[in-house]
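Supplementary Methods S3. Complex input for the iron/sulfur cluster-bound model.
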Amino acid sequence: MNVACDWAFPLVWAQQSELDSIPWLKWIIVLAVVFFGIFPGIVAYTVWGERKVAARFQDRIGPNRVGPLGLLQPIADAIKLITKEDLVPRSADRWVHLIAPVLILVSAFLVLPVIPFGVGLAAVNPPSGLIYLIAVSSLSALGIFLAGWSSRNKYSLLGAMRAVAQLVSYEVPQVLSIVPIILWAGSLSMVTIFDKQVLYGWFLFSPPGMLAFVTLTIANIAEVNRTPFDLPEAESEIIAGYHTEYSGMRFGLFFLAEYLSVFAVSCLGTAIFLGGGTLPWPLTGEPVVTLGGGETLFAMLLLNLPLIGIFMAKVSLYIFLMFWIRATLPRLRVDQLMAFAWKFMVPLCIINIFISAVWYECVIRPSKPNYLLGWGVTLPLVVVSIIGVLALYRSSMKAEPVELTTGSRRRSVVRSVS
Amino acid sequence: MSTPTITRPEWSTVIDPVLQKELEQHVLVTSWDKMLGMVDTVYNWGRRSSLWPLGFGLACCAIEMICTASSRFDIARFGAEVFRGSPRQADVMIVSGTVTKTMMPMIARLYDQMPEPKYVMAMGACASGGGPFKEGYNVVSGIDKYLPVDVYIPGCPPTPQALLNGLIMLQRKIDGERFTQAPWYRGDVERDVPIPVLGPDLIDVRLLEVTAEKTAQGLVEAREETLVKPTLIPAPQPEVPEVVEAVSDAPVAPKAPSKLDLLRAQAAGTAAPAAAEGTEPAKPAAKPAGKPAKKVKKAIARPSLVWLGDAGLEELAARINTRFSDGTATIIQAGLLIPSERLVAVCHYLRDDNLIKYDYLASLQSVHFEDCIEVNYHLESTTTPGKLIQLRVRTSEKEGEGEVPSVNAIWRGADFQEREVYDMMGIRFTGHPELKRILMWDGYAYWPLRKDFLEPYYEGPTKVFESRVEDGRHFRSEEFNPYGSNTKIPKDYTGWNTLDSGDDTKGKTLLPTGVEISELGTDQFMVSMGPQHPSTHGVFRMNLRVDGETIVGLKPVMGYMHRNHEKIGERNTFLMNFPFTDRLDYLTSMGNNFGYALAIEQLMGDEAKPPERAEYIRIIMAELTRVASHMWSIGFLLNDLGAFFTPALYAIEERELILDLFEWASGSRMMCNYFRFGGVAFDLPKGWIERCRGLVNNRLDGKIDELDRYLTKNEIVIDRAKGIGVLTAKEAINFSTAGPILRASGVEYDVRRAAPYGIYDRFDFKVVTGKNGDVYDRYLVRLEEMRESVKILKQACRDIPEGPILPGKKSYQIKVPAGEAYSRVENPKGELGYYVYADGSGTAYRYHVRSPSFINLTSLEQMCLGHSIADVVGILGSLDIVLGEVDR
Ligand code: SF4
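Predicted complex, serialized as structure tokens:
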């Protein structure tokens, strides 16, 4: 690796060398630029994108006065939010109130370093990247809870209660649907997972992979509190949920954090299921296979530019999917949400782990992968398990009238006491 | 202007924005000032481009505000579509609608909770200065009495375009602001507004001392001495031949050219007693001894157009008399007078044992007569509909003495209606479980619908008030009122130092009591949902007691939009009242017009029989209204269930097309004011009916199918709506629910069929009913009803004949015979009834609206208990209330 390369890929360098002071500095500078410049920028335009997309879904135009196509809208919003008065309610727990949004934002940021955006473009590559990722992303639950608790507002509290219940519940299917990947890649390192996909093609392309991808997506949407799982901030029920009492930039931080985590989970989904920046099946491993190998700056650029481009395209699609769902679906109720997580998602994910073991046996472990056998065996299994779990779930929800009669029993209690 | 309006004192320099822009563009930074100028540009640009409105709407104007966010107008273009539910995150408060006294403390509080820099836009005539409802006793004459307003948007309601224009104006204003002079960064400028208090009236704490002083002087009472008061008439008596001679037109004002001067002097608080002396003749005028009472034309005595009939009533009276003791039922003006001590027994009999089971309390209202207050009940049977009867109960007229047994135990639908009568007339209903004021607040000093209660801005029994027209000059009501505002406090009020800005006078008396649900020993807590809440469809409030998220207690709190429709209606001449009916349920103005027209037409008899074409036009308008209203309601139900506006906006699109038709025919999108007694105001313009046909035949069906396709089978909608908020048929009837709510519970009761009005009997349509009476069925019923409406529309558009649209010439002088009428129409929200008691003068003696939204709410508590907060929102959405009609 030559010197120029150091400047261009200090990230790569940083993790490989023993970090003496000057590269350290460069590393930090680049990190700062990427993390405080590019990511917030991406997030800001995600917000813009959402407003535009939602507008189109609703047969409207969306922002178009502030800059061409409304492109300056996020900047205006940022200026407005920054200059806005920052209120802390009188009876709020001041310090907790102030720290909570930062905590959430940090948690969203911390997810990003382990994402391999391209070859050698992961800020850090800890061997247990996935575990780390799950650990830091669950930090946001704490932040949300603190925000709701410290505000001394009943709606905030309700939002916080909902958020904690929801985030904790959906973390389980989220983790469980990552397990097949760990199984197949034989590693927790995000970079290794990426490399394996260059080798074997996207992990999505297998029946258990698809199922895991779907469950992960659902769990992701729940983790970032978006419709139909946006209960913690359900506008029509509890005003703005846990951030009801936040104003100005502190509210802006919540906004930022929310969209940052949207971006983060999209990156996660892309990295572990959609093969990062690689192209799909007939072109398995492209463009890494063709362009990879070079060590020069030029070669690295040549490889990484398309990689990042494709990666971002996938991320955009993933985010668009979330927008789409948001623009079309109503919201679940708390009990339905929990039932869905525990009675449907978790069993399905667990079954899927077994199915992916079958896939592993058929396709990944043998030196000559037998795709036909893999599909032939796992596809029926997946279909059967989905149908089975769904039927079980349905029948458990069929019990709802029973629950309602308990509801009316309750009502009669209510009446007799009052 | 004599009354102080609050302005922001801090803006000293006004720079021509154009000039400033010019400067900013062409001058290089050469000094600190210019540098600051550039900062200003960026600062202002950021704020102007990102104005997030507070998502709260007060009244009719709010509907137009929502429309501004819809696809046709799209406020999002300006980056202002981010309606925030929390004041903490909002930049501009759009005060969209009538500011009532009950709501004012809440608005002030919301304003204080908004972070700086914050702006206020007064949208519509009401928010700017009181608007059409200014004379109401519960209306604040413009939000600028309390908050600093940045932009006023005229109109009633302002069209969405006008609101957008207002937004642009606000942006211009922001462009002229300077970072360095911004008051919100200065510690010395106090920008919070003190929160007014609900005491005996709404009291501005800034003026507390002056108010107390003026009250002690008794200026109000002194002024009222000088005014011509409304005449009370005696209650009708059974002796039919001996016709009660109702006093005709309003007594002539004493010939006192000095009256205005006098009033002005009065307002100034000078020489009041002396002046009062001079107008003593006003008093005798109330009882015109010398004037021979004109023989007033009397309307046919019948409670409603479709009713039991004279013979049936006599037979029923005889039966009651034999069953109970003689004299239990006396027929007066086709109604049964029942002595109050036997009321409950008779009602039981009528509900359970009578041949026709009167299981449905249609309406309950009261009339203040000279010698008594009469409470009357309209009963209907859902099993044999069309047999309406009217009961009367009379009680003492004296303030605070009236007492009537409550029929709440027989028809739970009486709950709110009795509370309303209590609130308005001061009659106590013995046996009512929770007799608290419902529209006003406990502690309000008066019983506003008593004939002897004069509003603070009262000038005479009939509009147009003299002060508006005398000598071509005009005066503002404020100038006559001693307080200079819409305030009236009894002279002997003393509790001044008990008034507390932090007090929630209206809500705190209605807290649900604790209930143990025998599960975990968890703590319960109280949540106040509303009056400013994204899902309460206006300024409605629920006090919830929740255990976790489970509702264990719920008390609706309403009256935040009580703008005194009935009192104002008694001052209006009959014709003048039309535009006010528009503003009841502001989503269905045509339907409201219809009901009101029918009531007066019933009194006027054949003289006001609409010609054929007018009948068809009426049906077309009413059914279009139904489609528009149901569209809106389904869209917003989905919103309440958590959909992110998409269904609502698609529904609004269709509604806009219908509004276009309305605007074309009547001149206004929302407030159509289109019906007249005996017809409609204008003939349909050329091409209208073709366009309507196009819409009806080619578009609406498809759009309804579209809604059906996307929503009906949606897994989440089904999960969220099925089995939620169940009301059995029996309960639904007992609670007097109406419209889609009643029918969703499986009761086939539709006024269009049960008591056909207009020419509904000619059309082929189905009365849609549901089975389970849950949120889902209500949704389905509405959906199907739209289909039926389209069916009716197709027939009507096909058959509409040419011809006149009014029976006679257009006339502004309506002579309405004395009598009593109750008309009912099947409005989209349910049975809308108008009760009118006319005394032969130019105004209604008593005017009452049986509002479906209001009465449907009676069942809310029952439906919500045991469900979760999310469900409450859905249930409320499925009730489809409109606050203009709930609170009137
Ligand atoms: S009456 Fe209604 S439409 Fe008119 S200004 Fe007032 S709130 Fe707006």
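The longest helix of chain B spans residues 612-640. Residues 241-293 of chain B have pLDDT under 50 and may be disordered.
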